[in-house]
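Hi! If you just cloned this repository, the fastest way to understand the data is to look at a raw example. We've pasted two of them here, unedited. The first protein comes first, obviously.
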Amino acid sequence: MKKYISILFYCIICHVWAKDTSTQSDMRYLIIPNLQKNKEAKAILYPYVSIKFGKNKSSGIKILKKDIIASKMTHIIFKDSKKVCENLLFFAIKDMQEQAIKNGGTKILNTISHAATEPHNSKQTFQCKVGKLFAIVVLQGDVGK
């Protein structure tokens, strides 16, 4: 009996997952929180590696590595999708900060969201793709010093 229940549960999860990976996902454009004042961001991020959203002219800043990418995904079951997207943003930024540190950088410039086929170049908002089970945030930027 346990075996049949397990198989049934597995089939239901696969069915929901298959629907989640279809085009039924929702692209959300959320406001980038103030990273210096946000309590969760301050607890997660490195304060000595700055980040600038949107394409900027990097005059006087040496670009060490172009087009680094950070992609974070998690489930949204029993969670507020907006809060999940915000946390994914923080962890994607932390991933980019760690890549910057490995490359000898102290800044992340020209940061854009890239969760859809077209990049989202904004200084105020980021993209979060939300499906029935999962949410994903993808960031792309340059490492500078």
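Ok, and the second one:
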Amino acid sequence: MELGSWDKAIIRSIFSTFVPIAGYFLVMGWLAENNNTDFVGYLFSMVIVLATYLLFSVVGWCVIGFPVHWLASKYFNQSLWCYFVALVLFVIFITGFVGMFGAAFYGSAAILQAGLFLYWLRKLKT
């Protein structure tokens, strides 16, 4: 059973997904405040968002991502259907806790991370 360079792929997918999330929060914070003088407040907010995002991402990969990748590699020959089913179940599960908007936000982050993970995994393998 070949798992590939999963550790490098996970790290790259986590940090590649953070860029659009950080951009979203910077733009939304700027639009909400419409005040260009509070740059330190934006920077501090980004540090908090980064820390929370990294915590949720690492926990998510340990609890959901890596077991799904292991199962897909061992039993399903890394079929994309395994990742798709796991993502759909994740979005359905998270909807009960954070509602539709939160599920769309966390689900899109999870889909982007999973897609980048599979891309980096295949790219690093060759």
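That's it. A detail worth noticing about the second one: The mean pLDDT is 81.
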